[in-house]
Write a structure and sequence with these properties.
Blueprint: H1 2-77, E1 96-98, H2 115-118, E2 125-126, E3 140-146, H3 163-167, E4 174-182, E5 189-197
Parallel strand pairs: 1-3
Antiparallel strand pairs: 2-3, 3-4, 4-5
Protein name: Pilus assembly protein PilX
Domain PilX/PilW C-terminal: 105-197
Keywords: Membrane, Transmembrane, Transmembrane helix
């Protein structure tokens, strides 16, 4: 009986000593777990903040893109095919120019890619569409009447050209429209360009 009692006492003593030895390890493991959870939480907070910034920037860019598209549409309505020739804008400046790529274009081409020139009424046309953007800027555009001569050349095999039908052929007019839209902030700008055949 006494041997059994000693055995129980030793088992209880060894269990208590194991518990005493593990108290420090439990604290260390708990601290490591808290540290890991904190790192994961901070990464999640940083990630959600970055996603919010990206969503805001994407929204601003989308607003600027839509404003630039609206500027293109507004410009193209001024040169619709159903308009008479005398209803077209004069291409003498103020946002309407003759081919700006030509070296001798009149008036002299503005430096349109400069931010200040986009705000100038001498070089651009404001659409005044009533868009209410946070930036307060309306879409602006520049329209160029392009000179594209059509040449009639003989076919390579020497076949003749029906010049009678070519006499009634009207050369199409081409217009290049460049539109600039601003989004929710003045830092979100989009420039779109289209060529319109009339």
């Amino acid at each position: 009986m006494s041997g059994n009692h000693v055995y129980k006492k030793m088992a209880r003593y060894s269990a208590i000593s194991i518990v005493r030895k593990q108290k420090g390890i439990v604290l260390l493991v708990a601290l490591i777990m808290v540290l890991l959870i904190s790192v994961v939480g901070l990464a999640a907070i940083r990630g959600s903040g970055l996603q919010e910034l990206m969503a805001g920037n994407m929204r601003d860019h989308n607003l600027a893109f839509q404003a630039a598209e609206a500027g293109l549409r507004a410009a193209e309505t001024t040169i619709r095919p159903e308009l008479e020739e005398n209803a077209l804008p004069l291409f003498t400046g103020g946002g309407h120019f003759n081919d700006l790529n030509k070296a001798n274009s009149e008036p002299k081409p503005p430096t349109l890619w400069d931010l200040d020139d986009w705000k100038s009424a001498d070089n651009t046309v404001t659409t005044n569409m009533g868009l209410t953007l946070a930036s307060g800027e309306q879409p602006r555009y520049v329209m160029e009447k392009l000179v594209v001569p059509i040449t009639i050349a003989a076919a390579a095999d020497g076949s003749g050209i029906d010049t009678a039908s070519m006499d009634s052929f009207e050369e199409p007019e081409f217009y290049r429209v460049t539109s600039r839209g601003t989004g929710g902030t003045v830092n979100a700008n989009v420039i779109l360009q289209s060529v319109y055949k009339r």
